[in-house]
Amino acid sequence: MKKKPLKARIVETSLVMFEKHGYHGVTVDQIVEECGTSKGGFYHNFKSKDELLYNIHDVFISYVLDRAKEAYDNYSTPTSRLCAIILSFTKVFDLYKPHITVFYQESTYLKGDFQEKINAKRDEYRKIILRVIREGQENGDFRPEVSAEITTMAIIGMVNWTYKWFKKDGELSIEKIGEIFNDLLVHALVTEKGMENQDIHTYLLKSQLISE
């Protein structure tokens, strides 16, 4: 089996150590010893331990942001866009669960420019969801009486909590969990008019969120 690049091995090692001992409970010396490299190898890939923590955060935040942009571009209705965004958001907890766990445990230690960059991406992601909801309300597909801002934060909060309880060997796959989230949102947010839209109806049938 081909050996993973050093940068990937450093990240994997630090994820385990940060999760177990905390960010300030682990030194660069301990990381390189556990990883089987040198401090030179570490600093060739990361300027500091802070940059390593930033990299851990940035990987999964960049992933969900890129997938949200793709969903917005690839689908034409607010409902299909929102469902695609939620599915990709949910999948991140299977792909990057260790990164996310460390993020929630250690995010307070991210400072300065690193913190600003991460917060900017999180805010951009929130605005994409908010935009989709507002567009759905404007065209009559989503209920207008609910707050778009609160709905956005409710969606993010609901899906974010997945990291606490999701298990790869659990009864439900991450894809099925994403479908359940979408089922809840569609039946809480989409209007009767929205359900009658042929493009939306076809998408919901394909996603098994409604029956024939």
TrEMBL record:
Upper classification of the organism: Bacteria, Bacillati, Bacillota, Bacilli, Bacillales
Pfam family of the protein (one): TetR_N
Record-annotated DNA-binding residue ranges: 27-46
One Gene Ontology MF term: DNA binding
PROSITE patterns: HTH_TETR_2 (PS50977)
Xref: PANTHER family: ACREF/ENVCD OPERON REPRESSOR-RELATED (PTHR43479), ACREF_ENVCD OPERON REPRESSOR-RELATED (PTHR43479:SF11)
Domain of life: Bacteria
Gene3D superfamilies: Homeodomain-like (1.10.10.60), Tetracycline Repressor, domain 2 (1.10.357.10)
InterPro entries per record: Homeodomain-like_sf, HTH-type_Tx_Regulator, HTH_TetR, KstR2_TetR_C, Tet_transcr_reg_TetR-rel_C_sf
Protein name: TetR family transcriptional regulator
Stretch forming the signal peptide: none
Alphabetic keyword roster: DNA-binding, Repressor
Domain HTH tetR-type positions: 4-64
